[in-house]
Write a structure and sequence with these properties.
Strand content: 5-15%
Radius of gyration: 16 Å
Low-confidence stretches: 131-143
Helix content: 25-40%
Shape: globular
Number of strands: 4
Length: 151
C-alpha cells in the first residue's frame, strides 16, 4: 500500500494507522476487562513464551494463525469466535499486537484491542519480573526495538 503521494508507507505509519483504530488498554485496564470475561490472546511464539513466561489466563494463538482462529466464518475458527467477542491481543511489548488487533477489527471483530507495553508491562503490573533465559534477547520472534523518541 502506498501513501496519497505514491510512496510506500513505513512501518511507523502502518503502526500509527493501526493504533488510531484501537482503544488500547493499559495493563490495569486489561486486568479489569480480563476479570469481566475478555478473551486474552498471547500471540508470541512458543520459544518467546518459554523464555519470558506466560500469563495463566491467556490463550496462546501464534500470530501466523490468529485471524483463522478468531474469524467466525473460518473453517479453522475456535468455538469462542464471534464478531462481538472482546479480544485483548498480547505480544511482548505492544507493537505486533497493535497490528494484529487492527487486523481482527478488519474481520469485523470490533472489540479487538491490545495492551500498551504488552506482556512485559502486564507482568510488571502484577509484580512479576520477566524471566529471561540465556540468549532470549535474540530469540526468534522477538519484538522490534521501540521507535526512537523525538523531543
Amino acid at each position: 500500500m502506498t501513501t496519497p503521494t505514491g510512496r510506500p508507507r513505513t512501518i511507523d505509519e502502518v503502526l500509527a494507522d493501526a493504533r488510531s483504530r484501537l482503544r488500547r488498554l493499559t495493563p490495569a485496564e486489561a486486568e479489569r476487562v480480563c476479570a469481566d470475561g475478555a478473551f486474552v490472546v498471547d500471540i508470541r511464539p512458543a520459544a518467546q513464551r518459554a523464555a519470558e513466561g506466560e500469563l495463566s489466563f491467556a490463550t496462546p494463538i501464534e500470530r501466523n494463525v490468529l485471524e483463522w482462529r478468531l474469524d467466525p466464518a473460518s473453517d479453522a475458527s475456535l468455538p469462542i469466535a464471534s464478531h462481538d467477542l472482546q479480544v485483548v491481543v498480547l505480544c511482548q511489548e505492544g507493537y505486533t499486537s497493535s497490528l494484529a488487533a487492527a487486523a481482527l477489527q478488519e474481520l469485523g471483530i470490533h472489540r479487538a484491542t491490545d495492551v500498551i507495553g504488552g506482556y512485559a508491562a502486564w507482568r510488571t503490573l502484577r509484580g512479576d519480573a520477566p524471566s529471561r533465559a540465556a540468549g532470549a534477547a535474540g530469540a526468534e520472534g522477538a519484538e522490534p526495538p521501540p521507535p526512537p523518541t523525538t523531543t
